[in-house]
Amino acid sequence: MANGFVPYHRMPEHKLVPSVRVYGPGVRLWHWANATMVIVLCITGYFIGVPPPSILGDASSSYVMGWIRFLHLAAGYLFALLSVYRLWLVFTERGIAHHLYLPAIWRKAWSDGFFRQIRWNLLLDGPVRYVGLNPLANVAMFFMFLLPGLAVIITGFAMYAEVVGHDSWQYFWFGWVTHIFGNTLDLHIIHRLAMWVMVWFMMAHIYIAVREDILSRQTVISTMLSGERQFRD
Amino acid sequence: MKRPTTFDVLQERGISRRDFLGFCALAATWMGLGPQGGAAIAHALETKPRIPVLWLHGLECTCCSESFLRSSHPQASDIVTSLVSLDYDDTIMAAAGDQAEAIVEEIIRDYRGSYILAVEGNIPLANDGMACIVGGRPFKHQFDDAARHAKAIIAWGTCASSGCVQAAKPNPTQATPVHKLIKNVPVINVPGCPPIAEVMTGVIAYILTYDRLPELDNQLRPKMFYSQRVHDKCYRRAHFDAGQFVERWDDEGARQGWCLYKMGCRGPTTYNACASMGWNDGVSFPIKSGHGCIGCSEEGFWDRGPFYERLPDMQQWGIESNADKVALAGAAALGAAIAVQSAATVVKRVVTGKAYDKDSDDSPTS
Q1: Closest CA–CA distance from residue A183 to any residue of chain B (Å)
Q2: pLDDT at A101 over 70
Q3: What is the CATH number of domain B6-226?
Q4: Which of A40, B77, B168, B226 lies 20 to 30 Å (CA to CA) from residue A87?
Q5: What is the count of residue pairs from A and B with beta carbons less than 8 Å apart?
Q6: Worst-scoring range by mean pLDDT, A92-96, B193-197, B220-224, B295-299?
Q7: What is the ipTM of this complex?
Q8: CATH fold group of domain B230-321
Q9: What is the predicted pLDDT for the residue at A165?
């Protein structure tokens, strides 16, 4: 199945095909660790912008925002490190690890599959089985996860550079971002909007994974656990 | 002709050496120069010829001048106005009319390349600069003439640094900050609406003392006054970390002096020295008076309202919409799509007995 890792390779219909190993252990580990970080980041990030109701009592007895920010910053570092790890996997792990970064929209298979996938989602046609990501899912991941993910990492470190000051390595590497925007309030807004795009992605991603698993005659959710994509007729 | 030093001028005015040294020590402290700083300033002011300063007023409200004149130390107002040889400042000088305008030409001619140009306000470019006429001609002309031969330009206030309210969208007069019009002369931005008086005098004292410009950040602001956010030095920061916020203007938190973050305080994104230096001889600053920072020293603060909301409005998505409201609308639309698709799938399965027609599928031929 070497050519099975070509993007958007469709499985033949009406035929029982053997299962394919599409995700190595690295990608699977990354997926679930990353999902955990994204959830922690979204919840704590939401509360940094819109803090929870005030804590009563003396200021010295509580550290609510402090802990929320600590969790956010710590998870943010892990999220960034996991992103580097994920990029490294492209070069070290077989399978479809590289599809996330480069939707092959120049291929005919992509445009054909993209419209086919839209028709399926409008219930005008039946589902299609792919070895790897389907063309629609691929662009959705690129525009709703990868790009906003890059945006939150860059704006996140730029805002962190404000906290640690002009002598920090964060400022050295990400200080230019504050120069682009001038008013760093814009960084907070972009960071928050990018978070919301990732929340939209999560909604669609989980829903579609469940839906495809039920209707498309192939495993989707368990594939991210075992690495194997099995096909049913 | 020997040019008089600042100290010479001060002595003529009857200011004692004690007061003079007091000012030097204070200025050194504001600038964080260390124990020898006061002596360095005193030495510079006693030996170096006074640098003439041309203070031009463009499209502005004069709040920078008002702030400057209230520099805190009791004798400072005297010292400061002598420190800078304010040869031309149309708001506070005695001369008027053609005589006054002649001073500008004289300074440019006599001190070519060695005077400092202080600009308060910005330069409107639309309609040939007709929105701001000084001495019978557009301010742009006066500015261009004076800027060309200056040693350095100090852009006073947010107007001159980044535009301020007269540059608010859609900026009908095309009000343009100083640094965008200047190429070959160093520019120092001293933002704030107005800047803190001691920051203004501190910047001038630094230039006189060391005969060079202070270290600037990537927005051309002196690092010694603008490298930290108001939030970093805010005395209410402990309440922010504890999670204690003013929720309404009349609640217990407001009385207790809790953090104004939820009331739209822009302290976390505002670079200024308010929280450490204070205003009016260190008496107070906005947050200390119970009102959030509006970020007046930041670029574009005037277009990022409302000042009483943490998330600014996003006018590109309509009036009174912010990031969370946009996101919620998107999530609702997406949720509706998910619900509709799920329901349609179920209905189709119930009606036809299957969710899709497997046999009509276009199977790949390979």
Answers
A1: 5
A2: yes
A3: 3.40.50.700
A4: A40
A5: 149
A6: A92-96
A7: 0.89
A8: Cytochrome-c3 Hydrogenase; Chain A, domain 2 (4.10.480)
A9: 86
Tokens describing residue A39: 């959830």
pTM: 0.88
Q: What is the pLDDT of residue B197?
A: 87
Give the residue-averaged pLDDT of B239-245. Answer: 95
Q: What's at A78, amino acid-wise?
A: L
Of A155, A134, A158, nearest to A197 by C-alpha is A155
**Which site among A44, A183, A184 would you substitute to test the B interface, given the most B Cβ atoms closer than 10 Å to its Cβ?**
A183
Establish whether domains B6-226 and B230-321 are of one fold: no
Of B218, B240, B341, the CB nearest to A175: B218
Residue-wise pLDDT for B65-90, tens only, equals 888 887 765 445 555 566 666 677 77
How far does B284 lie from chain A, in Å, by closest CA? Answer: 22
Q: Could you state, in order of their start, the residue ranges of all structural domains in chain B?
A: 6-226, 230-321
How far apart (Å, rounded) are the C-alpha atoms in residues A55 and B243? 6
Identify the CA nearest to A134 among candidates A11, A18, A1: A11
Q: Who contacts B269 (Cβ-Cβ below 8 Å, separation ≥6)?
A: A162, A183, A184, A185, A187, A188, B229, B231, B295, B298
Cross-chain Cβ contact B247/A182 below 8 Å = no
Distance from CA of B364 to the nearest CA of A (A): 6
- Please give the Cα distance from A205 to A133 (Å, whole number): 12
